[in-house]
Design a protein that fits this description.
mainly alpha; flat
Length: 160
């Protein structure tokens, strides 16, 4: 448990210093979640990559994302603030023990879990808009991407 805690603290420290983007691959300096709202949902949501949506579906996806965005952004702001505090405390001079950072770590883990659950519910809500044909289209696209990624990495072979 002690080793796990140390690894998590190290990861949080890196995140607090800005080395690890937290929200959907968009680091705060690149525009963060606010910039993502202007992006095309089909390109930013893995579920929709390779899927052709109707205009009505695009509208509904936009409405779902718009309704969920404030809660996700608030949770993200809280995570980033706590990670910043972790980074500050780690850089303070003097002795630092794990138990001094444990409450902050627990808060970050709780909030990340909350954010993951929010994202999961949003994904399911959007998935329910798709037809069986669109789900098949998305699955086919995903398999094509897996195959292309496997072929582009040296030393990776498909196992039978």
């Amino acid at each position: 448990m002690r080793g796990y805690f140390s690894c998590v603290v190290a990861a949080l420290f890196a995140a607090a210093l800005g080395a690890v983007p937290v929200y959907g691959g968009a680091a705060p300096e690149s525009g963060g979640p606010e910039k993502m709202e202007r992006a095309n949902p089909e390109s930013t949501l893995p579920l929709l990559r390779g899927v052709t949506l109707t205009d009505e579906q695009k509208t509904k996806v936009g409405e779902i994302l718009q309704s969920q965005r404030p809660a996700a952004q608030e949770t993200l702001k809280r995570i980033l603030a706590i990670q910043n505090e972790l980074g500050n405390r780690i850089l303070y001079p003097g002795k630092l023990e794990e138990d001094q950072l444990a409450p902050l770590l627990e808060q970050v883990l709780f909030l990340r879990n909350q954010l993951a659950r929010q994202n999961f519910r949003t994904t399911l809500e959007i998935r329910n808009l798709l037809t069986p044909e669109q789900l098949a289209q998305g699955a086919e696209y995903r398999e094509r991407m897996k195959t292309q990624q496997g072929q582009s990495k040296p030393g990776t072979e498909k196992k039978n």
